[in-house]
Amino acid sequence: MAHGDLKYTLLDYRAPSRHTWLCSAASVLIGVTLILTIAFYTTSSSNIHTISSSHNNGARSTIKSTEGPGSVESESGVVAADDGRCSEIGVQILKIGGHAVDAAVAVALCSGVVHPFSSGLGGGSFIVVRNSASGEALALDARETAPAAASTDMYRDNPTSKSKGPLSAGVPGELAGLHAAWTRYGRLPWRDLFLPSIKLARDGFVVAMQEKEALILADPGLTEVLAPGGKLLLVNETCYNPKLAATLEEISEKGPDAFYKGSLGENFIKDVKNLGGILTMEDLKEYKVVIKRALEIEAMGYTLLGMHPPSSGTVGMALILNILDSYRSVQAVQGLLGLHRIIESMKHMFAVRMNLGDPDFVNVTLDVSNMLSPSFAAKIRQKIVDNATFSPSYYMPKWSQLRDNGTSHFCVVDSDRNAVAMTTTVNFYFGAGVLSPSTGIVLNNEMDDFSVPSELTPDELPPAPANFIKPRKRPLSSMTPLIILKENQLAGVVGASGGTKIIPAVLQVFLNHFVLGMDPLASVQKSRVYHKLIPNKVTYENYTAIDGELIEFEKSSKLFLEKRGHVLENTSSSAVCQLVVHDLGEPVQNWDGKRRNWRNFLRRNTENAVFKGMLTAVSDLRKDGAPAGI
Ligand SMILES: *[C@@H]1O[C@H](CO)[C@@H](O)[C@H](O)[C@H]1NC(C)=O
Ligand SMILES: *[C@@H]1O[C@H](CO)[C@@H](O)[C@H](O)[C@H]1NC(C)=O
Ligand SMILES: *[C@@H]1O[C@H](CO)[C@@H](O)[C@H](O)[C@H]1NC(C)=O
Ligand SMILES: *[C@@H]1O[C@H](CO)[C@@H](O)[C@H](O)[C@H]1NC(C)=O
Ligand SMILES: *[C@@H]1O[C@H](CO)[C@@H](O)[C@H](O)[C@H]1NC(C)=O
Ligand SMILES: *[C@@H]1O[C@H](CO)[C@@H](O)[C@H](O)[C@H]1NC(C)=O
Questions:
Q1: Residue 215 lies inside a defined structural domain of this protein
Q2: Which ligand is nearest to the CA of 432?
Q3: How far is the CA of 337 from the centre of ligand 3 (A)?
Q4: What PANTHER family does the record point to (predicted)?
Q5: What digits encode the pLDDT tens for the residues 218-253?
Q6: Which stretches within 475-590 are classed as H helix?
Q7: Is residue 429 within 6 Å of ligand 4 at its C-beta?
Q8: Is 33 considered catalytic here?
Q9: Which residues, 6 or more positions from 99, have their beta carbon under 8 angstroms from its beta carbon?
Q10: Containing structural domain, residue 614
Q11: d(CA 350, CA 372)
Q12: In the prediction, which pLDDT does 608 show?
């Protein structure tokens, strides 16, 4: 087929500046729609491996076969999603001059279609965006909110309904978040960002993962889409979601009001009510994206841009990195002793983070400033010893741990070095386990991320009051989308899915590359450890990934940790991390001593201009994703 010709056309097209883009918009757009429509459905993750070395204004894009399919390089733009089809759709948007935000919208919509078990219009997300020219960085909180009819004790009589069925759903924020980001930064028409996903939903997409048969068959909506005629679709069979295609089409033409204020929303609410849910049209109308300047933390010579609470991710990272930073040496995090200190820092962080909640409802000022404070971290560090770990009470946890899960994360960087880190979710696998039959939208079960007074907690700690339900409140989250800067230049984008495992995963990948100097692919692939304080166990990865790659945790590491009193248990359930690294041209050993050289290097070479080096995108082989580059 004409994929080669098509690629040629797209590559020949010079990515324009915003000004040029506007001038040539009319002529290009006519072609764009056509090209998009053809391109997206002819590309698949397997095509990615056929892109070898193309030239576009001197830019290079190469799959480094030596590094395996999990990694791609480009000087012009990259997307690292957890599904190769969605990465490729994002890159097509970048190729025609889209801003990183345009690509992010298209990638998020694609993920919602091909991975309805992880994310979609019925869920919510955190989006961190940095515009390279102005340096402006925004944190968009599009997390689900409790409906107006929700109450602190609403699950007392039926605890299961907190995580399963329509009562477990918060008001969806995904679409509002995408639109808010696009309104600020988008360059391409809103409608065009939907075309690839409409096509996937309508003309069918290949099923990449299929689990939870019982859950699917228990819901008529899910059954219709994923088990037509009562027979579960298998991996590699084609799935159709025509209702979702129609929903996406309507939103592409009428904007998000079609859902939040219009007939689509009314149909969605009707479905939810019929099933026994309490969401109302008023809830949809009242939904607001919370937009703030990104939370900025300085650690180990880098600036990390991320979300404010109700995300515990950025402040959690800050606390851990400040603890490790207080050792004042890069050696502190190296080797097995480094691993022990990382685990101890994580245990302290998990104890502290449960003080957090939605800042619009609880005063978390003191807890946030503690978690961001180097002196607070230094005090905690004094409690860490190199030869022992301790039982949970030593870390003084007050409240039962949040146990969230599910989710999808992707990273986008465009040719101008604008960047997006987005983590999106419906919470559990297939969220509430409910698909709205008239709209094709899967309902989230984000209410499960709240704490409730009647909860029987597995860790025997009381539920966290800062995270109790209130109407319109947002539950605490582990999601940690981050944009990383070095001397005010983009250095990377990172994030992960996997609930409680997200912060440990993002932490280890960050340290692996930015502090310990491992290459991007190895930084993501390396076996990781996880902890959640209670149970008092280190879980570690030691298995063969989907593509046959061994993720090995050494026996000697296990013995080293056991000698310090850690109890280790292997796990096959991992966080899934996506990473983009921007090569700024100097070695990463900058933490103690070489900073001046580095600064001089940038002055010499960029003089406040936006630096443009090689971009490397990595999708985690733990979920069989693939990145894409221009
Ligand atoms: C799905 O198709 C791919 C590519 O043709 C193949 O490698 C894989 O083994 C198939 N998976 C299953 C479960 O059939
Ligand atoms: C929140 O807590 C901080 C520190 O404890 C306090 O200084 C501040 O006045 C409180 N804010 C409100 C609105 O109560
Ligand atoms: C760790 O070292 C301290 C002092 O160096 C010692 O008192 C303590 O017993 C050691 N703990 C273990 C578990 O070896
Ligand atoms: C999420 O958490 C729940 C409860 O802790 C568990 O039953 C479920 O299997 C987890 N995983 C997914 C992918 O939903
Ligand atoms: C990891 O798995 C391999 C088998 O694949 C096994 O030989 C090894 O002992 C395991 N290591 C640990 C630390 O469990
Ligand atoms: C580790 O996990 C694998 C599968 O995930 C399992 O086969 C193996 O028995 C486990 N080993 C230990 C020591 O728990």
A1: no
A2: 4
A3: 15
A4: GAMMA GLUTAMYL TRANSPEPTIDASE, RE13973P
A5: 999 999 999 999 999 999 999 999 999 999 999 999
A6: 502-510, 520-525, 555-563
A7: yes
A8: no
A9: 185, 186, 187, 188, 414, 416, 418
A10: 71-204+240-294+401-447+468-629
A11: 14
A12: 62
